[in-house]
Design a protein that fits this description.
- The protein is α/β, with parallel strands linked by helices.
- 31% of the residues lie in helices and 22% in strands.
- The strands form five sheets. A ten-stranded mixed sheet has the order 9-7-5-2-10-1-11-15-19-20, with helices on both faces.
- A hairpin with a 2-residue loop joins strand 3 and strand 4.
- The longest helix has 22 residues.
- The chain is globular.
- 50% of the residues are buried.
- The mean pLDDT is 95.
- The structure holds inosinic acid.
- Inosinic acid binds next to helix 4 and strand 10.
C-alpha cells in the first residue's frame, strides 16, 4: 500500500503544509516524526487560515487520523493550546489524534536552558533558535538520565520521582549558566504536568504499534516532515541546524515505520530560498531595504510563523537542493510560491560554488566550509506577469516554464506540482 513522505529540501518554510493538505484525501493517517512546536505550518482551507506548530497539518481533514510520533518533542501547553484552537474553529479533536507515549516532554527548564545558552558568551555561539526548548529537550533525550517521555506522565508517583532526581542537577546547570536563572521545584512542576496529563491521556498510546497495524490493514500513511532537510542535525549545515532528523532519514526512527514502506517521496522546494536564524546562506540577497531581497520578502510574506522573524531571502540554490534531494531519496518535486517571482525581472539560479578558487557542485555539510563558498549563477529572464490565476501548465508564461524546467534539470528530478498561491485551487498538477 502506498505511503508518502512530504519533505522540505531547503531550510524550512517551503509551504509543505499546503501539499500535505492536498494529499490528505488519498491517505488515512498523517504522521509527524520530528521536531516540535518550532515548526510553523500555515494552511489556507475554505478561506480560513490555520497556523499549526506541533500538530500535524493533516488533522484539519476529517477523514484522517493524525499521529505525533515518538521522534517529536512535545510541550503539553502547546499541545493543549492548539487542540483548543482547532476545536474552537469547529475541527473535531478526539480519537483522530494520537500522541506517542515515547515522544519526549518539553519542560519550562528546557526553554530556560535554551534562552541562557543562546544569550551566553554575548550571543556569539547562538544558533538563532526558535526559543521553544527543542534543542535542550533532545539533549536530555540522548543524555537518557535526564529525559522524560510522555507516557511517564501517566504514572504520577514515578513521574514525581523522576522530576525529584532530575531537577537538582538541572537547576545547578541553569545556575552555572547564569546566576539569574529560574529554579524549578519538583512538586509544583509535577502537579502542573499531571494536570496536563489528565487532558491529554486519551490521545496517548504506542503509535508505532498503531501504525504497524494500519499498514497491515492496507491503510495509507502520509509522513509530514517539519523544518527542511538543510536543517537536519546530521546532514544539514551543522551546527546551524535543528536538533532532529528533519530530512526523510528521520521517518524510520521518529515513527517506528521502516522507510521501505515509503512509495512516494515528494520534495518541496520554494521557487527561491529562505532561511531563518543564523548560518551560512551562499545565495542570500542581503541588499538592504530597497533591494530585491526585501522585495521578495514582502511579496512572499516571508516572516516566521513561530517567531515572526523576517526570513532571509535569496536565489534558488541547486547545489544545496540536489544534495537534500539525493539524501532524502526524493522521487518528485513540488515547486511552491512561483507566483512570488513575478515581481523579479531577471532570475538567477546557483548552479555551482567556487570554494577556495575551485569550482565545485558538491554541497559541504559543514557551516564553516559553506561560508567559504561563493555562488556561480546562470541568469534567466523573468516573466513579470501575474500567474496566480493560471490552472494549466501550458498557460504558464514561457519564461516561467523555462525557469521550472531548468530547476528540474539541475536537480535531476521532475516537477509534479506547481503552486502559484496559498489556496488549494492555486495549484497546477503536472501529471
Ligand atoms: P530550533 O529548531 O528552535 O532549535 O532552531 C534551530 C534552527 O532551525 C534555527 O535556525 C531556526 O530558525 C530553525 N528552524 C526551526 N524550526 C524551523 C522551521 O519550522 N522553519 C524554518 N526554520 C526553522
Amino acid at each position: 500500500m502506498a505511503s508518502t513522505c512530504v519533505v522540505g529540501l531547503q531550510w524550512g518554510d517551503e509551504a509543505k503544509g499546503k501539499i500535505v493538505d492536498i494529499l490528505t484525501a488519498e491517505h488515512d493517517f498523517v504522521v509527524r516524526y520530528n521536531g516540535g512546536a518550532n515548526a510553523g505550518h500555515t494552511v489556507v482551507r475554505d478561506g480560513k487560515t490555520y497556523k499549526l506548530s506541533l500538530l500535524p497539518t493533516g488533522i484539519l481533514s476529517p477523514n484522517m487520523t493524525a499521529v505525533i510520533g515518538n521522534g517529536v518533542v512535545v510541550n503539553p501547553v502547546k499541545f493543549l493550546e492548539e487542540t483548543a484552537q482547532l476545536r474552537q474553529a469547529g475541527i473535531p479533536i478526539g480519537d483522530n489524534l494520537l500522541l506517542s507515549n515515547h515522544a519526549h516532554l518539553i519542560f519550562p527548564y528546557h526553554v530556560e536552558e535554551e534562552r541562557l545558552c543562546e544569550q551566553g558568551n554575548g550571543g556569539d555561539q547562538a544558533i538563532g533558535t526558535t526559543g521553544r526548548g527543542i534543542g535542550p529537550c533532545y539533549m536530555d533525550k540522548v543524555n537518557r538520565a535526564q529525559g522524560i517521555r510522555v507516557g511517564e506522565m501517566l504514572h504520577p508517583e514515578h513521574f514525581l520521582e523522576r522530576l525529584r532526581s532530575i531537577l537538582p542537577r538541572k537547576n545547578a546547570i541553569l545556575k552555572a549558566l547564569s546566576p539569574d536563572a529560574r529554579a524549578f521545584e519538583p512538586k509544583a512542576l509535577c502537579d502542573e504536568y499531571l494536570g496536563y496529563a489528565q487532558q491529554m491521556k486519551s490521545h496517548v498510546c504506542d503509535t508505532a504499534d498503531v501504525l504497524h497495524r494500519a499498514l497491515k490493514d492496507g491503510k495509507r500513511l502520509l509522513f509530514e516532515a517539519a523544518q527542511g532537510s538543510l536543517l537536519d542535525v546530521d546532514h544539514g549545515t551543522y551546527p546551524y541546524v535543528t536538533s532532529s532528523n528533519s530530512s526523510t532519514t528521520g521517518v524510520w526512527s521518529g515513527s517506528g515505520v521502516p522507510a521501505r514502506n515509503l512509495t512516494r517521496i515528494i520534495g518541496i522546494i520554494k521557487a527561491y530560498t529562505t532561511r531563518v536564524g543564523r548560518g551560512p546562506f551562499p545565495t542570500e540577497l542581503d541588499d538592504g531595504p530597497e533591494g530585491l531581497g526585501e522585495k521578495i520578502r514582502k511579496t512572499g510574506r516571508e516572516y516566521g510563523t513561530v517567531t515572526g522573524r523576517p526570513r532571509r531571502c535569496g536565489w534558488f540554490d541547486t547545489v544545496a537542493v540536489r544534495h537534500s534531494a539525493r539524501l532524502g531519496g526524493v522521487d518528485e518535486l513540488a515547486l511552491m510560491l512561483l507566483d512570488v517571482l513575478s515581481v523579479v525581472s531577471e532570475l538567477k539560479i546557483c548552479t555551482a560554488y567556487e570554494m577556495d578558487g575551485q569550482k565545485t557542485d558538491v554541497f559541504p555539510g559543514d557551516a564553516f566550509l559553506l561560508e567559504r563558498c561563493k555562488p556561480i549563477y546562470e541568469t534567466l529572464p523573468g516573466w513579470q506577469t501575474d500567474i496566480s490565476a493560471i490552472r494549466e501548465l501550458k498557460k504558464l508564461p514561457p519564461a516561467a516554464r523555462r525557469y521550472m524546467d531548468r530547476l528540474a534539470e539541475l536537480i535531476e528530478l521532475p516537477v509534479s506540482i506547481v503552486s502559484i498561491g496559498p489556496d488549494r485551487e492555486q495549484t497546477i498538477m503536472v501529471k
